[in-house]
Amino acid sequence: MADTALSGSGTTADDDPPLQTAVWRLRSRACWTDAAALLEPHATGDPAAAIQRTALLTERCLYTGEGWTDAEDALRGAEALARTDDERGGAACERGHLAYASTLLGVRDRADEASVALSRAAALLAPAAPGRPLLDFRRGLIAQYIADSPQSARAAYRRAHAGAAARGDELLLSFTWRHLASLALQEGELAEARHGFAESLRIREELGYLVGTAPALISLAEAEPEPEAARLRAEAGRLFRLLGGVPTWLAPHIGVPGPRPAAAT
C-alpha cells in the first residue's frame, strides 16, 4: 500500500508493519471505519497517517454513499498537518478525490473543486514522487466521468499504469487495467477490454481485495459472451451479498434495485 496515497499493492507481505497489515485487511473487507480507527492515534501528528486515514474514509463514501462528514473532517486535519510539498500534494489529491466522489454520486456538484485540487496536487508533486501515479489515475477519472474526455482519460490512465508498474503498486494496476479496458469496451475493442478486465480481476483476487472483486467481475462480464457472463454476474452477486450490499452502486448490475452511477472504482 502506498504510504500516503492509499492506492496500494496490498499490505500482506512479510515485511509490512503490523498496523498496515491490519489496515489493509479491514479495508479489503469493506471495514473502512474500523481501519480508520486504527490510524486515528497516529493521524493527529503524522501527515502520512492523516492522509491515509482520509483516503480510507473517502473510499467508504465512494462505495457506500455515506460518511461524508467524517471524510471532510479527516481531510481538514490532514491539510492542517501537511508541511512538505509531497504532504501538501497528497492532501490536495485527497481533496480532489473526495470532491470527485461527491460529484459522481450526485451528493453535490464539486467538479470544479476536484479539478482545481488535482491541478494543485500536480503542481506540488514532483514527477517521480510516490503519489504521482495515483494522482494521474484520479485525473483520468475526472476526464472520463466528469469531463467526458476519453482521450485525456486514456493518456492519464497510461501514465498512471506506467508509474504503478514501475513502483510495483499492484492494486493501482488493477484500477488502471480496469479503466483502460472500459475505454476499450466503449470503442468496441472487445479483445483488449477482456484482457484488461481479466488482469484487473486477477490482481484483486491475488491481493485479497474482496470489496473490489465484485466490480471487477461485473466489468469482465460486460466483455464476455454467455454463459460465462452469467457465471461472472452470479459470483459478483454472491460477493455483493457477503459484504452486506457494498458497493451500493453495483446493485442494479446484479438485479438489485438501487442507484447506478458510473462504476468508477
Strand content: under 5%
The SS-based structural class is mainly alpha
Q: Radius of gyration, rounded?
A: 17 Å
Q: Total number of helical segments?
A: 12
Share of helix among residues? 55-70%
The end-to-end span amounts to 16 Å
**What characteristic shape results from the CA principal axes?**
globular
Major pleated sheet: none
Mean pLDDT: 91
Strand tally, please? 0
Q: What are the low-pLDDT stretches, counting only 5+ consecutive residues below 50?
A: 1-14, 258-263
N-to-C series of helices and strands = HHHHHHHHHHHH
Description of the molecule:
With 265 residues, the protein is mainly α. The chain is 69% helix and 0% strand. The chain is built from 12 helices and no strands. It has helices at 18-28, 32-43, 47-64, 68-81, 85-104, 111-124, 132-146, 150-167, 170-186, 190-207, 213-223, 228-242. Helix 5 (85-104) runs antiparallel to helix 6. It is globular and about 55 Å long.
